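> forwarded from #structure-qc
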């Protein structure tokens, strides 16, 4: 009986530490972005452009911004904020005035066979970011930056698989 209590206590401690570390990582990333650290490019939106975000997300502000870092996309109207982790970025593309970030996500629901495959390469999610009219020229720099990130990741994966 005491062994089961110890095992359960160890499992609970493991999960508490894991959740704490994950939340600390997100909190640290938000703090860095709020202070301008690591931001590669910022899109500032006019009232008309920001309307897309107020219709799509729970933003109430009249204007807002999107900040890009190596591993995150930060969207804020000054009161509400969203943080997307893109450190598993697999593809970046342009489509009808939007930048599309295709990111590999970890899905912890069972597959059709009933098995959990948290690192399935087919688990992809797209994030669409509206390109403001005055930022169209800078978009090429942003695309180039993230394409280099993807290329570097692909080279690392090839090296790991060749070992």
């Amino acid at each position: 009986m005491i062994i089961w209590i110890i095992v359960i206590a160890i499992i609970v401690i493991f999960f508490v530490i894991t959740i704490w570390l994950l939340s600390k990582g997100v909190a640290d990333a938000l703090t860095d972005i709020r202070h301008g650290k690591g931001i590669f490019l910022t899109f500032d939106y006019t009232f008309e452009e920001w309307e897309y975000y107020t219709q799509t997300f729970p933003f109430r502000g009249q204007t807002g911004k999107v900040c890009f870092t190596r591993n995150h996309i930060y969207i804020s109207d000054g009161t509400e904020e969203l943080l997307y982790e893109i450190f598993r970025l697999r593809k970046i593309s342009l489509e009808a005035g939007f930048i599309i970030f295709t990111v590999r996500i970890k899905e912890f629901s069972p597959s059709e066979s009933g098995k959990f495959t948290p690192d399935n390469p087919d688990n992809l999610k797209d994030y669409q970011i509206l390109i403001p009219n005055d930022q169209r020229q800078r978009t090429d720099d942003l695309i180039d930056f993230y394409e280099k990130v993807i290329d570097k990741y692909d080279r690392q994966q090839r090296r790991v698989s060749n070992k």
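QC bot note: The mean pLDDT is 80. The first strand starts at residue 41 and ends at 44.
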